[in-house]
Amino acid sequence: MSEAQLPAPLHAVFDEITGVIFKRQGARRLRVDIDADRLPTLLALLKGRAGYLHLSAISCVDWPQDSEFELVYHLGSYETQVMVAAHIRIPRAASRYLSVYDIHIPAGFFERDIHEMYGIEFEGSPNMTPFILTEWQGPPPMRKDFDTLGYVNQHYSWQQYDPQWLRELEARGGGLVE
Amino acid sequence: MRPENYQPVNHPASHAFELYFGPNHPGIEGNYALHAVVSGDTVERLTADGGYLHRGFEKLMEERLWIQNIALVPRICVPDPVPMEETYARAVETLGGLEVPVRAEWLRMMVLEMSRLTAHLFTFGGHAATVGLYTNMFWGVTDRDMILDLFEELTGARVYHMYITPGGVRRDLPPGFLDRLSARLDYIEQRLPGFDDLFFDNAVFVGRAQGTGVMSQEQALAWGVTGPNLRACGLQFDLRRDDPYLRYEEVEFDIPTESAGDCYARALVRRAEVVESIRILRQIIPRLRHLDGPIRCPLPNPLAWTIPAGDTYVRTESSKGELAYYVVSDGTEKPWRVHVRGPSSMHAVQVLEHLGVGARIEDIAQIMFSLDACPPEVDR
Amino acid sequence: MSSMTSYPIYRDPDTAIGCRTVDEQERSLLRRVLDRIADHCRARSLFVLHYCTGCGAIELPPSMTSRFDLERVGMQPMVTPRQADILLITGYLSVKTLKRVILTYEQMQGPKYVMGFGSCTINGGMYWNSYATVKRLQEYIPVDMYIAGCMPRPEAIQQGFLQLIERIDSGRATAWQDYYRRYDWYLGNQQAMFGEQFQTPTDVIAEARHYALASAETTGRHTALLEQQLQQAALMPVGPGRAAGESQ
Q1: H or E stretch covering B193
Q2: What is the pTM of this model?
Q3: What ipTM does the predicted assembly reach?
Q4: Chains touching chain B, criterion 3+ CB pairs below 8 Å
Q5: Of 3.30.460.80, 3.30.450.40, 3.40.50.300, 3.40.50.720, which CATH number belongs to A3-142?
């Protein structure tokens, strides 16, 4: 993708940093794929040079087939309409990364959330204690290898519902579809 | 109480004691807890404790078909479910390349603004109840019910409508609906001076709310505050104008702001937004009268509907702030990942913890309600 | 089988009316008339605990405020469980909330009534395959009535409450007694959910004996675990440095 398609403030940023892959995903969405170790630099540049003050969210996507976690940092600006989504990949086995709390304070909540849901450690994040799953004893639930229905069948029981009309139906050879 | 459960407490000599604003507390909006360390009447430290409403939505959404998720999605934000439906639908449409018909877009705008009205009327009541004015809750909830009646007529349900589906909306307007909507809007407009006399100009409320929970614009921007809370700090930013969706570029509306950044400013911003929502609705009504067309684009068989692989980030201006969905598809008939970013993720956790420091015990509830913190969005 | 099957059932003749096992043949006519009057009055003055446990709570303000006014049937919200009669489980129950609901339920004083609100309390509802919600509420606390819906509208809530009033009035709303009669079973389910160390500050077995509702199934192998933990706790030294309580 050519530099000419980037909005003006972002030129200043992407002149400084190399090795990024751009993809325009709509009139106001820009996807940037970058190495994991260069992300904090990108975030600091976007905040300082291009006015991307707003960290909207940090999302985590589990790709077990690639053995990687993908972390997506969604950044917005109050001056430009284009949102930037910075995508990085971290290895699934190691599952640690740096915290960007010192650049964007909202990261504190999202990193805490990703930690309890996916088990990824963020070094330098102010609070890694569980927020939602404070009494949860199982594995990180949002990982793809956690089977929620299996867990439910093991730990909970269902109502027994055996009404007369259903028994009559079954006696005649009908019944519920499995 | 068993004697074994009496624990001697080993605190250093200080005036501080711990106060649990537990989940069973009318001063907490919803099922949420705040752990306060207070010294005398002043809070020294406030820690938020959530998870009481956790249902594992994001996991559940990965296990269901794209069309089945429209039943799950409104339940994430209980007081204001329509922006949730709209954001999910728009994410699926962006990924799936669906084109929503024009009439459906205007219908969506109509229900979005109606939902904003109900949410703000509810907050009038909630905010007033935290300062001891319970009449306002009765008024606000009853006026909100007038709009819920319209929702029931249109969609069949009062609260969780499941009206906005990927591709359009589920039903067209019943005959005479727009006249009834117009009459209700007249009714609400005529009620607003009453709310002013009772609540917004009430000297006791002004005394309680001014100067409480003050945020400067720099703090708000640093903490990730969005929506009416940010507009109350002086920044005129609204996603309907600055990241527009649907047909908001074709309607005229102002973006009210206040500069004080305290509870009073936030209440005033919401009151002004009620006026703006009514104004937008009055522009939508004549368009809907004269616009014809389908209300839904043709969809494939929903049980075998696959969306091409890709990801998208969609934002909406809900009544509480910036609501966003990050949806990833891997090309199958179920989503690969749906991440819901509710506005209260910031407001109910970090912002509340910051604003609580130095507040008085009786103001914690007021600060929480004035931020319009919605725990189901935080816990998902 | 538990070795605690035989113990004296303490019948205090001055225990409050209407909250003992009703053995119609044994009770005198006067007692039965007084029970009937007490139930009649109780049914018309119910305090609902103001605890919004889940999404259904959004339909409570409309039911309680002027439009659908619940106060005309004598119901009011009450903030403390010690003075509330009805515990409304409005919507789904996440596991974290369930622990607090059990604590709250035990703090309420008998007779007390639990209403399950919405289909999530019946069989998990919309979140049937969620790892974080409880599927069958009645395994953990006894439930008097369920109101179906997702969520129930105020008219349905009113009808549910009116049916509850009618049940209380006719003396049939005795699910709270089941908690004392079969505490071992409830505790077993609670321990299965929260671990074998789970205990609450309320001494349910003593209350069961006080209300003369203790039966053979009040104690069993699960309450035996409780006894063990209490004995161990009693042996531990009390003083600074002791770990904060086992009950949570």
Answers
A1: helix B177-195
A2: 0.88
A3: 0.88
A4: A, C
A5: 3.30.460.80
